[in-house]
Request: fold
Amino acid sequence: MSAPTKPPTILVIDDDAEIRYSLNRVLSSRAWQVAEAASGEQGVALVKKGPPPDLVFLDIRMGGMSGLEALQHIRSANPKQLVILMTAFGTAQTAIEAMKFGAFDYVMKPFDPAKVLALADNALKAHADLRAAGDQKPTLNIDDYREGIVGSSPVMQDVFKVIGQVTASDVTVMITGESGTGKELVARSIWKHSHRAGKPFIAVNCAAIPDNLIESELFGHEKGSFTGATGQRLGKFELCDGGTIFLDEIGDMALATQTKILRVLQAGEIQRVGGTETIKVDVRILAATNKDLEAMVKAKTFREDLYYRLNVVRIKMPPLRERPEDIPSIVEFCLQSLVKQRKARAAKLAPEALAVLVRHRWPGNVRELENVIYRSAVIAPGDTILVKDLPADLRAEVGPTAAPALSAPAVAGTGSASPFAPAALAEEADAPALTVGTALDYLFAQLKSADAPLLPQIERELAARALAAESGDAAKAAKLLGITKPALQKLLKE
Ligand SMILES: Nc1ncnc2c1ncn2[C@@H]1O[C@H](COP(=O)(O)OP(=O)(O)OP(=O)(O)O)[C@@H](O)[C@H]1O
Ligand SMILES: [Mg+2]
Reply:
């Protein structure tokens, strides 16, 4: 924000003088400063000499150093450099290579001036976002999260406390919650902290094993006990002796099997299918489900006695939409893990992109969030995930109701890092300068003309942005907005 009046700089690298000339003319029609280089070598030298341009247009086919080579030199000298590649010969190969080596975009010649300008606008906006995100420091140290469970929200703190309480004994724990909320993660954490940590942890997904096989799977079978039982086989309970069994999706277990599980819990013994011998097993049972077991007990599809046996301690995993303040740290954790495993190059998320994630409802909970981060981190060309790198359906949530209200007013002289100031609009002449007053006038006009009440949405939007700006620190975000922390949390949940 130091020199908002300094025009963006663009470097055009092409060995064809005509192309340089016409591109220069198109780009110079805006308040952009355009420089030219007549070869890959010359272009690379200019970027290295610095100051690096805000954007580079680079031809792929040139005599001497090729565009793809130049791209690699440029990106290794300045990993943040945004480069748009140009070519007259569009093959899958070159497009793939271009994106692989971190090009921002790829454009075919001959170009349509309007498209070139729109592309440059996007790139310069991304450049501003990257610069704004540049001085972010990681707030989370991945080594502090060996558990793999991240979350500082009050509800998650309660979960951690209960995990701590149940690790000292062999008490049975029932973990409930929507899909993707971390039920298995919690089960593993209980096991890792218990005295059984040195012994096996075996997860059995009751929904994935057909009813006629599950008993053999759990308790083993004797030779010849059913067609196909060609030899004796040990079940999970015997294999897990001394350890912990995690019965996942227990709500999908057949009634007959439920009876046998009850017997393990009551007497600590099993019988192999087709066998007569009673075998003592020492196994701790943890169970999980996303079904409503109470309703199943009422409907007599789940044994009431087993329900009480399993439900000694209950851990209810809160859905992610009820703890949006955990989103920034989960994001950071996922990104650091991905980079550590060399699965992605983007290690940061721009504040505006984070605000989009904080605002989303996450029906798939943490698993969905993880997938979104992974996908976005893989496709982001730079070291920072921008809004444009997020999946289209998430980006679409910014509009169509809230987005026009927040992006339509024209802006003068505020630079493009502000969410109210998309670079494309900043250029328009005769636009009134954006002040709190004009913004309010504009919002009020939107409120009056909106089909649905817009105020709750605006409040929620501001809450999400504040939370993102404060890296998920709910207390600081509340302070920023001048409201209490519970009020902020209420806004986010609405
Ligand atoms: N608090 C958390 N912090 C970091 N990662 C998490 C957290 N909770 C869940 N995850 C990750 O989200 C994914 C889903 O978690 P998990 O498999 O434990 O969920 P689940 O409740 O068992 O889901 P399902 O009901 O679909 O089986 C995993 O990759 C897990 O590592
Ligand atoms: Mg699971």
